[in-house]
Write a structure and sequence with these properties.
The chain is of the alpha/beta class. It is built from seven helices and five strands, in the order βαβααβαβααβα. It has one domain: Rossmann fold (3-Layer(aba) Sandwich), CATH 3.40.50. It is 56% helix and 13% strand. 34% of the residues are buried. It binds shikimate-3-phosphate. The site of shikimate-3-phosphate has 10 residues, from loops.
């Protein structure tokens, strides 16, 4: 059983959609950030504080390698994971990579009060999000096997993912 790996920008709903998807498919849900946090024994924010983004990216790479070795999972990746070729390579061709496509306007609204994402704790948060989003979207598209709109409810989007994945398998 291939894994289904959800990718996309912070706040696109990878975790909430992933949980719904796991419920509907009977697969096990794993949130990549939680997996990293559990292994490290600290939060993503603490990892960034202690080891910098570079340290976090190394842990993320290890997580990608380990999770891609497992089977039958729904994986919610971190928003930066699929911007690195080595992480894409870990999953590509083995698992199904699904991009949840959500407009930047929606993302900005959802993340307006966010305190948990180190990359967004900046005074010019809107500009940072805009630039990161524009830079990352083409990279996500390149990595993904299929693109699904994430504008619907989490359950509705989960059904769209199931549809998209079944078409892919035909
Ligand atoms: C990041 C996204 C976060 C988390 C970390 C870095 C990114 O995950 O991995 O803060 O680079 O976009 P979510 O997409 O789950 O917020």
């Amino acid at each position: 059983m291939d894994n289904i790996v959800l990718c996309g920008f912070m706040g696109c709903g990878k975790s909430t959609v992933g949980k719904n998807l796991a419920r509907k498919t009977g697969k096990k849900f794993i949130d990549m950030d939680s997996y990293i946090e559990k292994k490290a024994g600290m939060t993503v924010t603490e990892i960034f504080d202690k080891f910098g983004e570079k340290g976090f990216r190394e842990m993320e790479y290890e997580a990608c390698k380990e999770l891609s070795e497992m089977k039958g999972l729904i994986i919610a990746s971190g928003g930066g994971a699929f911007t690195f070729k080595r992480n894409v390579d870990a999953f590509k061709g083995r698992d199904i990579i699904v991009l949840l496509d959500v407009p930047i306007k929606t993302i900005k609204y959802r993340l307006r009060n966010d305190k948990s994402r180190p990359l967004l704790q900046k005074p010019d948060k809107d500009k940072v999000m805009q630039e990161l989003y524009e830079r990352r979207l083409p990279v996500y598209r390149e990595a993904a096997d299929v693109v699904v709109s994430g504008k619907n409810t989490p359950l509705g989007t989960a059904f769209s993912v199931i549809d998209a994945v079944s078409t892919l398998k035909k």
